[in-house]
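Protocol step 4 of 5: obtain the predicted structure for the target chain.
Materials: sequence only (see below). No template structures provided, no constraints applied. The aim of this step is simply to have a reference model before the mutagenesis design in step 5. Sequence pasted as it appears in the construct record:
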Amino acid sequence: MSPSVRGRMKQHLCRYSVQNGLRRALTYAALLLGAAVYLLPFLWMVSSSFKDLETVFEYPPTLLPMETLTAERGGKRYKLADYTPPGGQPVRSVLIADQRPGQYRVEPVGAGGPQAREWVAASAVEVRRRIHFRVENYRAAWTAAPFTQFLMNTLIITGLGILGQVLSASLVAFGFARLRWPGRNLLFLVVLATMMLPGEVTMIPTYLIFRRLGWIDTFLPLIVPSFLGGGAFSIFLFRQFFMTLPRELDEAARVDGCSSFAIYWHILMPLCKPILATLAVFSFVANWNDFLTPLIYLNSADKFTLAVGLRFFQGVYNTEMQLLMAASTLVLLPVLLVFFLGQRYFVKSIVLTGIKG
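Step 4 output (structure tokens):
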């Protein structure tokens, strides 16, 4: 190869590497920007959980929880501030005694009193603040309502919901994926078609059925449906995963005398750890965060779940926003923990589910 050709190849490679590096940098910048946009509400929720009620609604909002410094005088507490007088005079420490649009009424910190107060421009006054995390909001939020009982109720509903959804959906999907019977594909299309039916359409008929059965104000309407198929989406994921497994496993097991249920339980289910973890995460998030269903079927406060229990902070005239944000953060923590622990299986199952149809 001549030196000129080698030089041109090096130039092309350098140009390609620069373009590729620039493209990757722009891609990562766009992803970081999108992630920041989606993270802002979450960060505001966490930040508000450490604030007091006054600073939650301040404008412009701040991500770090800030506390206004105060000083006591005459049995009253006043905001502490720095006042910059006009004419280049030195900055003075003052107390804010009153305020009106565009002005503050201040008095000196050292020797003050009503006789020393004066109205000054608000632009010349800077209220002293410091970063302060009000951890006591979490303790107050948890004790403001019977959240321990709500937690136990949520754990019962979520645990049984996961168990029922995984078992019933895998069993139904096994019938669609591994057994041969007439009308199998048509019935599977009917099952998938139910995903296009909004839950609001069947809400009233379902409620009437559960009321006739006497299940209102019990956990049964929240648990039993999970054992009746697990939902079309769960069945679809399990079926697609089962179809990626070689049928030689079934044939070898039948030669050894295994029944269909034995093949399902002893041969295929041990190979389904990724999809089991994925559906467990989906089911956990759905049952843990479910608000509408418990709100409809549960009437007694001692049966409420965590999602419904958050309404205790919403009053008719006001809302303890800082306590609501603290309780919401506590409720969200298990969801984040489960997702991060199961994301490895989650990604693997999604990749394998679409291999064969």
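Step 4 remarks: The first helix runs from residue 3 to 48. The first strand starts at residue 66 and ends at 68.
Proceed to step 5.
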